[in-house]
Amino acid sequence: MENEFWKQAWVEGKIGFHQSQYNSTMSNHYDDLQLEDKNVFIPLAGKSLDILYFLEKGANVTAVELSELACEEFFKENKFDDLQIEKQEDFTVYKTGNLTYYCGDFFTINPEDVTPIDFYYDRACIVALPYEIRTSFYDKIDTLLSKHTDIFILTYSHEGPKTFGPPFYVPEEEIQKAYSLMGFDLEYIKYNDTKAQGRFKDAGLGKMTHIKWKRQI
Fold it and tell me: Mean pLDDT of all residues in the chain?
C-alpha cells in the first residue's frame, strides 16, 4: 500500500476513520492522566480532535501526518494563534503553542526531533498499515520510545482475512511480540464488540472486536 493511497483517500473524502469528537475510549480511560508539560506523540494523526484533547490537558503534542490535505484541514477547522509554517527537506512543519505538527512521511522522521516521548498514542495508525509495512513501522517506533514512555494503542479483530482493510486486523500475538522486543509489556483489554459496517458488512463480516493496549508507568 503506497503513500498515494492515503493521500487519495483524503482527496476523495474516504475518511471514515476520522472521528468528529474525542475518542471516548481514550478520554474515559485517561481522564485523570496527568499530562501537563508531558510530551505526547501521535503518528498518522490526520485531523484528529484528540490532538486538542491533549493540548487542553497541558501536554506538548507532536503529530505526524502524510496527507497535506489532512494537515491543511486540521488547521483550517481549528483556529490557532501565532501559527508558524516552516518548509524542511522532508516535512512541512506547523508550530503553534504546544503543538508541533509534521506533514510528511512518518518513516523519515528524525528521532531527535520528536523525543523524548512521555505518552505514545496510536488510535488509528497501526490498523491503517498492511502487514508488509508493519514490521518497518515497529522498527521505526523502536527508535522513538523509551522505558519511560506510557503507551496507548487501539486495534481491531474480526472473523475475516487479515489482509482485509483498512482498518486491518492486527493479531494480538503480533502486537505482543513487537512491543516485547522493544522491552514493553503491554496490558491487553478487550473492551467492545460492534456490528460490522460498510464494506466489512458487505464482505460478510458479522462483528468487529475493539481492543486496547496500554502501558502506564
Answer: 86
